[in-house]
């Protein structure tokens, strides 16, 4: 009953207003006593493991967002090596993973969403991933919230897609149709040795914003809530990131959806729904045929 009420309330809340205000507060510099008290409450409420943080003292962070996007100690998340190995892009819990059924991506029991819609409504952008592989990873409030490359790749395109800001926790994912294709999101596509790869960073209730290394904080252009696209394919100096390199972060947490084309990759056989993953651990591998094919330029 409480779960149903939690979901229903989200339909009537001013999601965007609440989330934008939360983002501004998280970025603000309130009195140290207030900021420190809230961070300590958050650590206790969600069980944040500060022994993993490069800066363990919560009072040393200048704002809540500085704390939330904290860096980990060097070497704490070794990145899986080996030719053709895919590394987990984040710390989190796998919501779902498997094969895309034509253009439908599985969300939860009885729920799926359209690949084209997820990627911003462009059929050509979605076409390479039809019948491909997907993995949806949920980042809980306690998790490390920087996003890393599962494989080396050259940035091709970034798409900002406006939308709702439902919570993305398991309760809501099971109840709200097309959740990940309805929420605000940032789609980044890369060319890799496995062919095209898409990383979809999904916003959620209370998420202040998504930040990328190449564009900074991604937000609606001039306040307009419409799909906007940035093309990086013809830059004089290509934007390239190695496997394990940071490519973005959530300023308050959410979900990453990873997409590969049909036959390009396979996930680790031990991974399944509700598997806990850490950034850098082996997540899958490129199929042998793809390893022999150089990435397109």
Task: Give an overview of the whole structure.
It is a single chain. By secondary structure, the chain is an alpha+beta fold. Helices cover 22% and strands 30% of the residues. The protein contains 9 helices and 18 strands. It has helices spanning 2-12, 15-27, 32-46, 64-68, 115-118, 123-126, 170-175, 179-182, 288-291; strands at 85-87, 92-99, 104-108, 111-114, 133-138, 146-148, 153-161, 185-192, 195-202, 209-212, 216-218, 228-231, 240-241, 246-251, 255-260, 265-267, 276-277, 282-286. A hairpin with a 3-residue loop joins strand 10 (209-212) and strand 11. The radius of gyration is 19 Å and the shape is globular. 40% of the residues are buried. The model is unreliable at 293-297 (pLDDT under 50).
* Radius of gyration, whole Å: 19 Å
Shape: globular
Average pLDDT score: 86
What does the largest sheet look like? 9 strands, antiparallel
Got a strand count?
18
How big a fraction of the residues is strand? Answer: 25-35%
H/E element order: HHHHEEEEHHEEEHHEEEEEEEEEEEH
Question: Spans of 5+ residues with little confidence (pLDDT < 50)?
Answer: 293-297
CA(first)-CA(last) distance: 53 Å
Number of helices: 9
Helix content: 10-25%
